[in-house]
Amino acid sequence: MITKNLIDVMKNRHNIKFFDQKKIPDKELIKQILKDGHNFIPHKNNLIQIDINVWGPEYEEEKKALVLNTVCGPGKKHWRPGGKYHNNFKILRDYYEEWRSYWLDMRKDRVKSYRNKLGIEFNEQVRAPYLLTFTQRIKSPTQNQIDNNFYGYDFNYNDSSNKGERWYLSAGIHGYGIALLSVNAGLSAGFCKCFFNTPFNYSKILEPIIPNQTEKIPFMLGLGYKNENVNYWGPLPKAKEEEYIFWK
């Protein structure tokens, strides 16, 4: 594993949208990143409140279907329930392929024109060689913890008054930790929050949802090598430090 200064790792972490589809990270490297995450990312009281599903390169077709469910921008309403194209994902597939070709050919003018005309974008990062989905773990502690005398009573945060908050916090911390570990290992990472499920475009990746969860999947995290042929035209401006950090 590469070991970098923490600040350098944080500086080099960017939310990558396009991954190299031909340069696939070794599975053992991904396993090591996940193992390091397990060993070093903290969880409140060591209660793991998330399950992480890992979708490798063998699920490329499922990811190609999933990317249509990530349509975003003001025009996304047309494919949401009640939208005028809500059951027409063939036309959305055509739009996606056109949009993707403009990005891969580095046609910035066409991307901008396309965005203005149709008002849609896609979250290509879900097509990363390795895609992690985070879901709520209903039962805590785990069987191993019970067998090792974790506590004499059972936690069930699914029944608590703030059941959504704890596992979201757990997922967010773990996801960011995995992203940093991935950069440290020479990979890139890309988060995706904008996606939806629909019967008109089935995706196996969105299907294994445990009943009675407070939410289904808070976000996905793609891991792989950045597509070096695609340039990124700068992030949105950040807030100033003094606009949200207040010394008391």
Structure notes:
The protein has 248 residues and is α+β, with helices and mostly antiparallel strands. It has two domains: 6-63 and 125-230, NADH Oxidase; 73-121, no CATH class. The chain is 33% helix and 9% strand. It has seven helices and four strands, in the order H-H-E-H-H-H-E-H-H-E-E. The protein has a four-stranded antiparallel beta sheet with strand order 1-2-4-3, with helices on one face. Helix 2 (27-40) crosses helix 7 (163-184). The relative contact order is 0.23. The model is unreliable at 157-162 (pLDDT under 50).
Which key terms come to mind for this protein?
248 residues, alpha+beta, NADH Oxidase, 2 domains, four-stranded antiparallel sheet, 4 strands, globular
Question: Any chance you could write out the topology, listing elements then pairs?
Answer:
Layout: H1 6-12, H2 27-40, E1 50-55, H3 60-66, H4 89-104, H5 108-118, E2 130-136, H6 143-147, H7 163-184, E3 188-192, E4 220-224
Antiparallel strand pairs: 1-2, 2-4, 3-4
Number of helices: 7
Give a quick account of the main beta sheet: strands, pairing sense, barrel closure.
4 strands, antiparallel
Overall number of strands = 4
List the domain count as a whole number: 2
What proportion of the residues is helical, as a percent range?
Answer: 25-40%
User: Rg, please?
Assistant: 20 Å
CATH superfamily of the largest domain: NADH Oxidase
Structural class: alpha+beta
Give the CATH level 1 class of the largest domain.
Alpha Beta
Sheet with most strands: strand arrangement: 1-2-4-3
